[in-house]
Amino acid sequence: MITEIIPFILVYAFIKAIKFILNKKSYKYFKEEQPDMLLQFTQRGANGGSDSSVITVANLALAYVYYGMYDSAERQISIIDWEKKPNRLKSFERRYQAIVQYLKYQNFDYGAELAIESKKLGKHNLGKNSYNLIIQIGMLLNGNLDTNEISVLERKFKSNKYIVMKLLIAWALANTYMAQNQIDKSKQYLDYCKELAPYCYPFQNIFMKTDETISS
């Protein structure tokens, strides 16, 4: 009987812990000048047991990353000794590290490797579409996807309801279109990032180079 109940407990914990990603109410917190309200909202997810608390540590660190507060993010993620955790929890740390590689270092090859590892570790977790999206974004920014795949990512941007993923997709598309010298399309996605998360500075700039520049 206990073994039948445990999976349901884990599912509940995961839902609680990723609440700030899945809940549309979190949109307003990304407009705040400082991440305090977002961190408080995220912290409320740490009520579903030990697994939920561990995942919430990774989500808090990710919130800092989105605001470009990388030192704070590293202090947060270091609270947990991840190598002692089961794979289902390690996957959240690898997801965090993948996004850090994208946003801070623009190391998309290594970031995509970490994202793939995250998916493998979390193969029994919820949110498999998010794992795949993070992998796709890394491959796209590393130049490994064709025009058809870019169109697929555009459709996912339109259909995805979760701000954490929408920001990442929009930023990836803004840079991809800049690299292709499609200035108007690039600006469209960059403007979306600026409107949705005006103080999340990693999403405010284009790192790809082209012959033209986007006006602010």
Brief descriptors of the model:
mainly alpha, disordered C terminus, globular, 216 residues, disordered N terminus, single chain
Shape: globular
Number of helices: 11
Q: On the 0-100 scale, what is the average pLDDT?
A: 84
| String of helices and strands | HHHHHHHHHHH
Structural class of the secondary structure composition? Answer: mainly alpha
Runs in which pLDDT lies below 50 for 5 or more consecutive residues are 1-20, 211-216
Strand content bin: under 5%
**Helix content estimate:** 55-70%
Number of strands: 0
What is the radius of gyration?
A: 17 Å
Please give the largest β-sheet: none
Report, as a whole number of angstroms, the end-to-end distance. Answer: 60 Å
Give an account of the 3D structure.
- With 216 residues, the protein is an all-alpha fold.
- It has a domain of 80 residues.
- It contains eleven helices and no strands.
- The relative contact order is 0.10.
- The N terminus and C terminus are likely disordered.
Question: Briefly, what is this?
Answer:
With 216 residues, the protein is mostly helical. The chain is built from eleven helices and no strands. Helix 1 runs parallel beside helix 4, helix 4 runs antiparallel to helix 5 and helix 10 packs antiparallel against helix 11.
Describe the secondary-structure layout:
Layout: H1 2-17, H2 19-22, H3 36-43, H4 50-66, H5 70-77, H6 87-105, H7 108-121, H8 128-141, H9 147-159, H10 163-179, H11 183-196
